[in-house]
Amino acid sequence: MLISDIPAHNESWRHGTAMIIGSIASQGLTSNSITYIQKKSCLNRCLTALHKSKSASPAVVVDLVGVVLGTIAESARLSQSLLDDFRTCHGYNFLKDFLLSLEKVT
């Protein structure tokens, strides 16, 4: 999983993984892969992990949110199902809460 309580020295691994997923999303999403992502509840699992994470730095969360939103944007050309999943999984609320928490930090 891209987000977990793995030590900070693994942030470069997370960033590299996020870049790979972003590349796959921009070059290789098909109707079958979108269906797979949906059936495995990948968005829900990712958003839940991001919400529960206590150790991830804001920079890591921003990277991962970028990957999630990029994947949703790329998938929208083929299907609206991941966008619907994002809404159903309270993705917009997560983004709002995360942005407001950044405001408190600065």
Description:
The protein has 106 residues and is mainly alpha-helical. The protein has a domain at 55-106. It has 6 helices and no strands. It has helices at residues 11-28, 31-39, 42-52, 58-75, 81-88, 91-105. Helix 1 packs parallel to helix 4. The longest helix has 18 residues, at 11-28. The radius of gyration is 14 Å and the shape is globular. 22% of the residues are buried.
Topology:
Layout: H1 11-28, H2 31-39, H3 42-52, H4 58-75, H5 81-88, H6 91-105
Helix pairs in contact: 1-4
Indicate the structural class: mainly alpha
Q: How is the main sheet built? A: none
Q: Helical element count? A: 6
| Overall 3D shape | globular
Strand tally: 0
What pattern of helices and strands is seen along the backbone? HHHHHH
Which features would summarize this protein structure in a list?
106 residues, mainly alpha, 75% helix
Gist of the model:
The protein is an all-alpha fold and 106 residues long. Helices cover 75% and strands 0% of the residues.
